[in-house]
């Protein structure tokens, strides 16, 4: 079991989790149990060898904790999340459902531009010339991204990120180390996205761009796009022959999602929650545009997506 700030990783635990007053108790088959206050937790990752009760789930959801269920590799594949109350949830979700297509497209274009600029920043450490191409591509993003700049950038980005001699393909179903690292990191990021979207009183199924009929988290997948490069930057530093079975690898991927997003020290989950709240204001007409943060690492000034 690994803990880091507000993420409780029990994806490798063999044992059980029990409910206690104001807390949950982690009880491995071997070793002493640990009591964790639910007020200190935002996300719990559960593996295939963990036994829990409905009392545990009730306590976690009542405390606004997102529970992610992981496969045998430790990669998140499903979730349970709280139905949190929001003072304007009805009005906000009606406005979200009725959001005009031009405003949907405008918001999506800003998300794409911020994502591509974040990718350029990550790539600048390994391939400055291609990073410059991504920055130039970002300048050409229009409302709705009709030229599919996101796809153009992705092809350049993934082909060069791990070095020109690496024939890497971003395939979520692949079991190679880099793809499994990315799946795990994105899964943790997605859990925080679910929490942010629901907490903002938005309907997670109603995406700006994503329209998957079987995807309950279309809007979450929209909003986390500019935050993915933060995970990519950490994956770039992990061993090419490593595995999620290595506890230190998981710890670093968890930390990738919890690291400061800006020079002021705001963490990724904090900035993501703020973006979701701003989107809620945007769909209700209280904001003229959605200003999207750009990832440039925790020790440099940031620019909002324009």
From TrEMBL:
The UniProt keyword set, sorted, is: Antiviral defense, DNA-binding, Endonuclease, Hydrolase, Magnesium, Manganese, Metal-binding, Nuclease
In terms of InterPro entries, this protein maps to: Cas1, CRISPR-assoc_Cas1, CRISPR-assoc_Cas1_C, CRISPR-assoc_Cas1_N, CRISPR-assoc_Cas1_NMENI
**Which residues of the sequence carry a binding annotation for Mn(2+)?**
150, 210, 225
Instruction: Name what cofactor the protein needs.
Output: Mg(2+); Mn(2+)
Q: What sort of enzyme, by top EC class, is this?
A: hydrolase
Could you tell me which Gene3D superfamilies the record lists for this protein?
CRISPR-associated endonuclease Cas1, C-terminal domain (1.20.120.920), CRISPR-associated endonuclease Cas1, N-terminal domain (3.100.10.20)
Pfam families for this protein: Cas_Cas1
Q: What is its EC number?
A: 3.1.-.-
Report the GO molecular function annotations: endonuclease activity
Instruction: Report quaternary structure and partners.
Output: Homodimer, forms a heterotetramer with a Cas2 homodimer.
Give the UniProt family note.
Belongs to the CRISPR-associated endonuclease Cas1 family.
Q: PANTHER family, alphabetically?
A: CRISPR-ASSOCIATED ENDONUCLEASE CAS1 1
Q: What does this protein do?
A: CRISPR (clustered regularly interspaced short palindromic repeat), is an adaptive immune system that provides protection against mobile genetic elements (viruses, transposable elements and conjugative plasmids). CRISPR clusters contain spacers, sequences complementary to antecedent mobile elements, and target invading nucleic acids. CRISPR clusters are transcribed and processed into CRISPR RNA (crRNA). Acts as a dsDNA endonuclease. Involved in the integration of spacer DNA into the CRISPR cassette.
Q: What is this protein called?
A: CRISPR-associated endonuclease Cas1
The organism's lineage is:
Bacteria, Bacillati, Actinomycetota, Actinomycetes, Actinomycetales
């Amino acid at each position: 079991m690994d803990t880091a700030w507000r993420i409780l990783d029990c994806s490798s635990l063999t044992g059980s989790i029990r409910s206690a007053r104001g807390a949950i108790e982690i009880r491995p088959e071997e070793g002493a149990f640990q009591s964790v206050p639910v007020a200190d937790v935002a996300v719990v990752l559960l593996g295939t060898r963990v036994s829990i009760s409905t009392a545990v789930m009730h306590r976690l959801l009542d405390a606004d904790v997102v529970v992610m269920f992981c496969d045998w590799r430790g990669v998140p594949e499903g979730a349970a999340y709280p139905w949190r109350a929001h003072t304007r949830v009805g009005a906000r979700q009606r406005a979200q459902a009725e959001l005009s297509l031009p405003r949907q497209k405008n918001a999506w274009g800003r998300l794409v531009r911020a994502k591509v600029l974040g990718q350029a920043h990550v790539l600048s450490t390994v391939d400055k010339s291609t990073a410059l191409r991504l920055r130039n591509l970002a300048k050409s993003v229009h409302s709705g991204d009709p030229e599919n700049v996101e796809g153009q950038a992705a092809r350049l980005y993934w082909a060069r990120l791990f070095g020109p001699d690496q024939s890497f393909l971003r395939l979520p179903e692949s079991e190679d180390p880099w793809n499994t690292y990315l799946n795990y990191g994105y899964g943790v990021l997605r859990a925080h996205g679910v929490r942010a979207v629901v907490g903002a009183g938005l309907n997670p199924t109603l995406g700006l761009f994503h329209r998957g009929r079987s995807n309950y988290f279309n809007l979450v997948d929209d909003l986390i796009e500019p935050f993915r490069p933060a995970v990519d930057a950490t994956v770039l530093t992990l061993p090419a022959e490593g595995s999620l079975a290595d506890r230190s690898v998981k710890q670093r991927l968890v930390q990738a999602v919890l690291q400061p997003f800006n020079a002021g020290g705001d963490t990724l989950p904090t900035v993501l929650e703020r973006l979701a709240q701003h989107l809620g204001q945007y769909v209700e007409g209280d904001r003229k545009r959605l200003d999207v943060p750009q990832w440039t690492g925790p020790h440099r000034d940031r620019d909002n997506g324009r």
